[in-house]
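Q: Structure tokens for this one, please.
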Amino acid sequence: MTRPGSTSAAVGRQALVEAATARRAPPGLAAAVVTAGGAMEFMTSGLADIRTLRPVTVHTTFLWFSMTKIVTATAAMMLADRGALDLDAPVIEHVPELRVLRGPVSLITARHLLAHSSGLANPPPVRWVRPADAPPPDARAFLARLLRRHRRPRFRPGETAAYSNLGYLVLGELIASCAGQSFCEFIQCELLEPLGMSRTGFEHAQAPADIATGYWRLPPGGRTAVRMLLPPGIVGQRAGGLVDFRPFYVNGPPYGGLVGDVHDAARFLSLHLGDGVACGRRLLSAESAVAMRTLTTKGSKLTTGLGWWRRHEADDGSGLVEHLGGGGAYRNLMRLYPDSGRAVVMFGNLTSYPVEHLTAVVLAPGIRRLVPPAGE
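A: Here is the predicted structure, written as tokens:
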């Protein structure tokens, strides 16, 4: 699907996406290309549900997983712009649960959390999910329990960059404390609603018919193993070589809890391409928008800014910054090309597939030549 009045380049992108989906992508894909001028082109392909043959549309809902972190980081920078959050003040004054940690925890700041340089552990979030009809855990109690289990920092704050889901859970509690309201309420009222992201939130806003069923490609016996790993009520049935997942949510909204469609994700990207302005409103200062994508802290696997980062293997000299979002049943990617004024986002309803290659497919007519992965 392309937007009415699409250019020939957009039509070409759609054809490439459909061809790639037919070969080796997830059951369904939704993608958008956004330009700094506000133009958006949408492409969809495949199925949101294999059993019912329901197609993916621009309003099909996917779990964002860790792409949520860019929204969390944006919220923190908005509060910093307002003077409500000091990026360089000790976080422990707002999040006393950090006191259980060993080492120099009083040195951890919001800047460290944003840049994944706090030193906090990154435990595998294997069971950080629940069925969609189950109540969420208390956010502070959830964080406190994880901190008690992972008390030993990996390094001194600011020393290097190492990805941490736990760090963004702490950042969410910092945002709530500085905003004077819950993290989810702040995101909804101050960011999603002003951007017109009416189909995105921390639970499914749409009817079930709009939800993309998630899938995992598993060998015989794999379904049983995954059912043992995850809480009851999430792992569904086999559909050919895939196992489907019943609707579920992520525990810990700040690190990965958003649910929404590609149309809303494009609106969010327009905010960052517009240096903090979208839908005719300034939500973020230009200085903060630039700081978020300025890569300053290098780690062994990625170099980070204040929210955006780039894996070392993704550095193609184009100035891109990115954020992945993946877990059981879905895999997504946002990429921002500020130098050329373009961005791309892609959602897919499969645990693992070459999302990086497919974003190159989408951008091939406008950014660079399509180069197949090694071995093809």
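A few notes: The longest helix spans residues 8-24. The radius of gyration is 20 Å.
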